[in-house]
Write a structure and sequence with these properties.
Layout lengths: L1 H9 L15 E2 L5 E2 L35 E9 L8 H21 L3 E3 L3 E11 L4 H11 L2 H4 L3 E3 L4 H13 L4 E3 L14 E3 L9 H10 L3 E7 L2 H8 L1 H7 L3 E8 L5 H14 L3 E5 L4 H10 L5 E4 L6 H6 L9 E3 L17 H11 L7 H20 L4 H9 L2 E4 L2 E4 L12 E4 L5 E5 L15 H8 L2 H4 L17 E3 L6 E3 L9 H27 L4 H5 L2 H21 L17 H42 L11 H21 L3 E10 L2 E10 L3 H25 L10 H24 L4 H37 L25 H5 L9 H14 L8 H7 L3 H5 L3 H11 L13 H14 L15 H4 L3 H10 L2 H4 L6 H7 L4 H10 L3 H9 L25 H14 L8 H22 L3 H13 L9 H7 L2 H6 L4 H15 L28 H16 L6 H15 L5 H6 L3 H16 L9 H22 L15 H23 L1 H6 L1 H39 L1
Parallel strand pairs: 3-5, 3-6, 6-7, 7-8, 9-10, 9-11, 11-12
Antiparallel strand pairs: 1-2, 4-5, 13-16, 14-15, 16-17, 18-19, 20-21
Helix pairs in contact: 2-13, 3-5, 9-10, 13-14, 17-19, 17-24, 19-20, 19-24, 20-21, 20-22, 21-22, 22-23, 23-24, 27-30, 35-37, 35-38, 35-39, 38-39, 38-46, 39-43, 39-46, 42-43, 44-46, 44-48, 46-48, 48-50
């Protein structure tokens, strides 16, 4: 009992009926607590209990002079507990009902029943705790009129609690009056249940019609998972169809959804972009917040139930409420007066706000007041409290209420559609539809969130500016709109401080100028790459300088890159930022790498000069090429790239814009630049590295200042490095001082880069251009038309050169001024490796090319005197110059600047190959492959063309140096190096071979090639052809023949030199004319002896004019051309004897004897019954004889080659014969056979030569070596047929000519 009394006291609420009230509780029984009045005054005591078993009773006496005949008790469940879900609505209901009850009891003296008198209105509330089960228990109590004392039952809030109450009340055929329940199912089939809230199906009727009239075409609905709310939105599809609107989607969400559940839905609906969104929520605050988070608003938004609720005003910002619309049964703007109270809608609202603790007047209050008013109006109109009478009356009447007119449908529910209300721009609810009750027009479309923020929060809105739907401020020029939404404002245009276009154009112009200068210098260097001034400056170094300057200059392009902010106004990444960020880091990369490449090339060059100078002083016998100083370039480039890479990884430059001045929170002035947090430290590291390197270079320049700058270029390099040093040391502090001024900083940058690179180009290339032009202008030119034979000047071709010295004495420009001659002496003094102290004469001689000393002639003496300052005495012996010659040779090797001339052992590549263009290198690799050399139809004339006139050097190197020559040339040409085991070859350079030094081999072949005279037939081309033909025959027969290494080396070497120094006149001519050769070598094999002698003199570097009686030790002679230098003495003599023997066997006067001898050998090997001999191959003593015969056959093989090779050789051999005939005619000698131009028939001579010499010889060879029959004899047969045909054609043409002459003579005779 005590607990129940405590609950009653806690639930006691005073409802003021008169000016005085008192709360009193007294225990009656165990099931109710009743309060009663003990005062004799007119005050009425009213209390409410929270207990389900508790009743609240109001006892009326008289009030304000009113006399009551009795009382009518209105009982109702509602939520009185603050923890209840619907406590707010319970407060609204109690406050509203008390307001109306006070008016009825105090101002109207109660309910007026004409036949019975005036009755006081008593209200009783029962706490339903927002629970269905509790509501049902209350309903069961209330329907027992005898126990409850309740005359009329009224429903509380909401439909979910009203429906179970209606079910219980209807079961006892009692009447129930509901204020807020809108679900039609509550009233269906319950004739005594009434509700003033229109049907949920009608909730959106007015709103949808209003939006359709405004132009809306599409709609989306969202409903909470409650039956009444589903009913509200469930009617939309039919309504939309009737208005020709499209329902895009209908969405159901869980009961009481929160913002996290609604935000994804809001984003999804935003993609559908409907014109109108209709929501059916009890609480629309989470949905409004979800829309705000999704940053999207439809053109129209309608929400049921929550319009005007306190939770909406508390949960949504004031600026977000305007434009929200929704069906509402009531709002203060409705033009209507209540028939009972006489209050207008506005007057009711004012009274409610005055008498209650609420800040707003929700439509729920009007619904509760209307329900009570209609019930009282019906009692007074019928003068009855009978429920059946009241029901019949209410179903047929229209009531004037605070809501407006109310009429009930047959189910007892208000059948008038609720009007559409909307918050206006000031946040005040206005009725906007239907027009007859509208207090304001519909606001459509509703603004976006950005536009709302712009209008209400931003500086733009505060200043009365106009805002766009995007939330931007509409500004008058010259001001511009900045920001959006809450930050929207009108500002003066931002000063971005971009670099002026004229200044950027100036930077680009300087960049182009520097690049053009680099290109011009590069083209000039390429064109004059063989000029002495370029060769002396190392083209590789010049190339690096050009590349470095060009790369560094390119950095100027990226210095002018600029953009606005990293992020655009819409928050998106600026698409240009990535490009500008890359440009920011491209500047240090390009400038740094370019600077290091150019500078390191200069540093390497001056370091090389220093080392050469040091080697000259210390007598160091070492070649100092660019490879010796290449590590400088590599080291500097590695350090530079390491610093730049670390910078790039740790803290790269990025484009940033610094705001200098703001207005309304937005910048009005800013400046952009590349920045990096750790960038200054990396930049400082680069500057220190550059300055230290420059300082070191200046020190080297000082150390080499005494060396002539034409070749060491120490002065030019010193000036260049000094200027670079000055530019860098001045530019850095200036750049730091002007860094805040973008324009000046940019100007300093481009000027620094331009001056540095342009000056380097000017100082390094302009002097060379001037000197080259002067040297060419002053040079004395000696052409081939002059009397000095150019082939006698040196064993190398000047235009291809072996070293710097040869480049200075070009074939087509061999004259120099005194100044130029002095420069030549200076560069030689730098490069010459002196082994001992030389006399002044010997020192002069050391500068003279070897062949000028070896070949004594007027021309050579002239050259030595004019260009070397050396006067030679014809009586002086060459023994005086032996040391000089060796020193000169050392100078040539030492002076070589290019890696082309380095000795790479067995993989040495002759310089002639390096000097070929790439396409010719490719052709040479193909033609000189071992497989190609094996081919009998090898075209020596094609090789002559692709090797630029060096057939013997290339063929000799390819065959005698095989297979290493093929591997070396593949590597030098940039091809994949083949495996030696796949190539074959003789392997003479092997230690297992004869250890033939390949470089010496090339040098020897080169001088032999030069020693071949320029004859039509007996020349270096013929020697190369014979060597290749012999090789081909050997490869055909090697499996049968099986010669020794010594025999192979001897026979191949003999082929290369077998006609060296051939004068183009045969042995018969030499003998008849008593030439010097015939007197030296007598009458037998004159020229063959000459060839053999000259070959070994050249190999052993023996003076041709020295005393021939003295001994020559092969171990002590110069090894310059001695390809047999690694042979033992006995081996050397054996090879020499074989070479001589082979050369002598090329004497054509012994041809038939030799052929018969070989025929006898073939017949002996093919005797019947001697199959063993044939199967086992030639005997050891026969192998050398066969090799000699192979050489002889190779010597006459030109007639056995495929077309057109054989015809080209025929022309050449006949021309040489004719030249001999011409000379014989001049000398008054009998003209030799086949040498008379006027009488010789070439087809006849060739046919005879092939028929009697070539074909029989190859037939014999075919008998000895069957492989030849298949490869060669068919070609011989075809060529013989060719000459037979040509012979017949010649005879026919001759007969025809004779006939024509006879006819002409006859006609002439007749005419006479």
């Amino acid at each position: 009992m005590r607990m129940r009394m405590r609950l009653a006291l806690l639930g006691c609420v005073l409802l003021t009926i008169s000016s005085r009230s008192l709360c009193h509780a007294q225990s009656n029984n165990v099931t109710s607590v009743t309060t009663s009045s003990t005062s004799s005054s007119s005050d009425v005591l009213v209390s409410m209990s929270r207990s389900v078993d508790t009743t609240t009773t109001t006892t009326n006496s008289t009030s304000n002079g009113c006399t009551f005949a009795g009382k009518l008790v209105f009982g109702m469940p509602t939520t009185l507990d603050q923890s209840g879900k619907y406590f707010t609505f319970g407060q609204i209901q109690t406050s509203t009902n008390q307001l109306v009850a006070d008016f009825i009891n105090q101002e109207r003296c109660g309910i007026r029943l004409m036949s019975r008198g005036q009755y006081a209105l008593e209200l009783r509330y029962y706490d339903d705790r927002s629970s269905v089960s509790v509501t049902q228990r209350i309903g069961r109590k209330l329907i027992d009129n005898n126990n409850s004392g309740v005359d009329f039952i009224m429903a509380g809030y909401p439909s979910g609690l009203t429906e179970p109450l209606a079910e219980i009340v209807d079961s006892r055929h009692r009447m129930l009056m509901a204020g807020t329940a809108a679900n039609p199912t509550i009233y269906a089939n319950r004739p005594k249940t009434f509700g003033v809230n229109p049907s949920a199906k009608l909730s959106h009727e007015s709103g949808l019609q209003a939006f359709a009239n405004a132009g809306a075409k599409t709609v989306v609905t969202i409903m909470e998972d409650y039956s009444v709310l589903q009913t509200q939105c469930g009617a939309v599809p039919e309504l939309a169809a009737s208005l020709n609107m499209t329902l895009i989607s209908s969405n159901l969400v869980a009961a009481s959804p929160n913002i996290s559940q609604l935000e994804p839905l809001a984003r999804n609906i935003a993609k559908q972009n409907p014109d109108v969104v209709l929501t059916c929520f009890y609480d629309c605050v989470p949905w409004m917040q979800a829309l705000r988070h999704a940053k999207w608003t439809p053109k129209g938004l309608s929400a049921t139930i929550c319009m005007g609720s306190e939770t909406l005003h508390e949960g949504v910002a004031t600026t977000d409420i305007p434009y929200l619309a929704g069906p509402s049964p009531w709002n203060p703007t409705v033009v209507s007066k209540d028939a009972l109270t006489g209050w207008s809608s506005q007057e009711f609202a004012d009274r409610f706000l005055t008498e209650s603790s609420h800040d707003t007047v929700p439509y729920h209050a009007a619904l509760f007041a209307t329900a009570l008013s209609i019930l009282v109006q019906s009692m007074e109109a019928t003068d009855s409290t009978n429920e059946d009478t009241l029901v019949n009356y209410m179903l047929n009447q229209t009531f004037r209420t605070t809501l407006g007119n109310v009429a009930f449908n047959p189910n007892g529910q208000n059948k008038i559609s609720p009007p559409l209300v909307q918050y206006d721009t000031n946040g005040v609810i206005q009725t906007v539809y239907p027009p007859n009750v509208a207090s304001a027009p519909l606001l459509y479309p509703m603004p976006t969130w950005e536009q709302r923020d712009c209008q209400h929060v931003s500086p733009c809105g505060q200043e009365g500016g106009e805002c766009t739907r995007q939330g931007h401020c509409v500004c008058l020029p010259p001001q511009i709109s900045v920001g959006s939404g809450a930050t929207a404002a009108c500002n003066d245009p931002e000063e971005l401080n971009f670099l002026p276009s004229a200044l950027v154009a100036c930077g680009y112009a300087l960049c182009v100028l520097a690049l053009v200068a680099s290109a011009v210098a590069g083209v000039w260097t390429w064109i004059h790459r063989r000029a002495w001034i370029v060769k002396a400056s190392q083209p590789a170094v010049l190339g690096l300088i050009l590349v470095g300057c060009a790369i560094s200059t390119l950095s100027m392009i990226f210095m002018g890159f600029q953009t606005t902010y990293r992020q655009l106004d819409d928050g998106q990444e600026n698409p240009e930022v990535a490009r500008v960020d890359a440009a920011c880091m491209a500047v240090p990369w390009l400038y740094g790498v370019g600077f290091v490449i150019a500078f390191s090339a200069l540093l390497a060059k001056i370091e090389r000069v220093r080392l050469i100078n040091k080697a000259g002083k210390t007598k160091e016998n070492t070649k100092i090429g660019l490879m010796r100083v290449g590590h400088i370039v590599l080291f500097m480039l590695t350090v530079e790239i390491a610093i730049l890479a670390a910078w790039q990884i740790v803290s790269p430059y990025q484009w940033e814009r610094e705001v200098l001045q703001e207005e309304n929170g937005f910048p009005v002035e800013s400046v952009g630049r590349c920045s990096s947090d750790q960038g200054p430290y990396f930049l400082l590291a680069l500057i220190i590295f550059h300055i230290a390197a420059l300082f070191y270079a200046l020190l080297l320049c000082f150390q080499t200042r005494h060396i002539d700058d034409d070749f060491a270029e120490s002065d030019n390099i010193a000036q260049t490095v000094a200027f670079m040093f000055q530019v860098l040391t001045l530019a850095v502090p200036i750049a730091v001082l002007v860094e805040d001024s973008n324009n000046i900083y940019y100007f300093v940058q481009i000027c620094t880069v331009f001056l540095q690179n342009f000056t380097v180009l000017a100082l390094m290339f302009v002097p060379k251009m001037i000197k080259n032009s002067t040297a060419q202008g002053n040079a004395f030119t000696l052409t081939r038309k002059d009397s000095i034979p150019m082939a006698s000047i040196t064993h190398c071709k000047w235009d291809e050169g072996v070293d710097v010295i040869h480049e200075l004495i070009a074939e087509d420009s061999i004259g120099f001024t005194d100044e130029q001659r002095d420069k030549l002496v200076m560069v030689k003094s730098l490069l010459l490796n002196r082994h001992r102290k030389m006399s002044q004469k010997e020192e002069k001689l050391s500068y003279v090319p070897t062949n000028l000393l070896l070949k004594r002639s007027t021309a050579n003496n002239f050259i030595m005197r004019e260009f070397g300052g050396v006067m030679l005495d014809d009586n002086m012996s060459m023994s005086e110059y032996s040391t000089t010659l060796e020193s000169t040779r050392s100078a040539f090797l030492f002076a070589s600047d290019s890696a082309y001339f380095q000795d790479d052992g067995i993989y040495h590549v002759p310089p002639e190959f390096h000097l070929l263009p790439k396409e010719k290198k490719e052709s040479v690799c193909d033609m000189l492959s071992f497989a190609s050399l094996n081919h009998w139809g090898f075209n020596i004339f094609e090789l002559l063309e692709v090797t630029d006139g060096h057939p013997l050097v290339f063929v000799g190197w390819a065959i005698l140096g095989s297979p290493y020559s093929q591997m070396a040339m593949a590597k030098a040409a940039g091809r994949k190096t083949p495996d030696q085991f796949d190539l074959g070859g003789y392997k003479f350079p092997d230690e297992k071979g004869f250890n033939v030094p390949v470089r010496t081999l090339c040098d020897y072949l080169r001088v032999i090639e030069e020693d071949y005279e320029n004859n039509p037939y007996h020349n270096a081309i013929h020697a190369a052809d014979v060597l290749q033909s012999l090789h081909s025959l050997i490869q055909m027969t090697k499996d049968t023949l099986k010669p020794s290494k010594e025999e192979l080396l001897s026979i191949l070497l003999a082929a290369a030199v077998h006609d060296v120094k051939h004068p183009g006149r045969n042995n018969a001519f030499q003998s008849q004319a008593l030439t010097g050769f015939s007197l030296t070598y007598n009458k037998t094999s004159i020229l063959e002896n000459l060839h053999a002698s000259h070959a070994f003199r050249r190999m052993l570097n023996i003076d041709f004019t020295s005393d021939e009686s003295g001994p020559n030790d092969v171990r002590k002679v110069s090894k310059h051309f001695n390809i047999l230098c690694n042979l033992k003495k006995k081996q050397f003599h054996s090879v020499r004897e074989k070479v001589i023997d082979a050369i002598l066997h090329t004497d054509m006067s012994k041809h038939f004897e030799f052929v018969n001898k070989m025929k006898a050998m073939a017949l002996a090997r093919h005797q019947p019954g001697d199959s063993q001999s044939e199967a086992s191959g030639p005997k050891d003593e026969e192998v050398w004889q066969i090799l000699l015969f192979l050489l002889h056959m190779a010597d006459i093989s030109n007639s056995a080659k495929p077309d057109p090779i054989f015809s080209l050789w025929a022309e050449r051999v006949m021309e040489e014969f004719f030249q001999q005939g011409d000379e014989e005619s001049r000398l008054g000698m009998p003209i030799s056979n086949l040498c008379n131009r006027a009488t010789v028939n070439i087809p006849d001579s060739q046919f005879g030569f092939m028929n009697f010499v070539v074909q029989p010889s190859y037939d014999v060879l075919g008998q000895l070596l069957p492989e030849v029959q298949e490869a060669v004899l068919p070609i011989v047969s075809r060529n013989l047929d060719y000459w037979q045909l040509e012979k017949e054609k010649k005879h026919i043409r001759g007969a025809s000519h004779k006939k024509e002459q006879a006819v002409e003579a006859l006609n002439h005779e007749k005419s006479n």
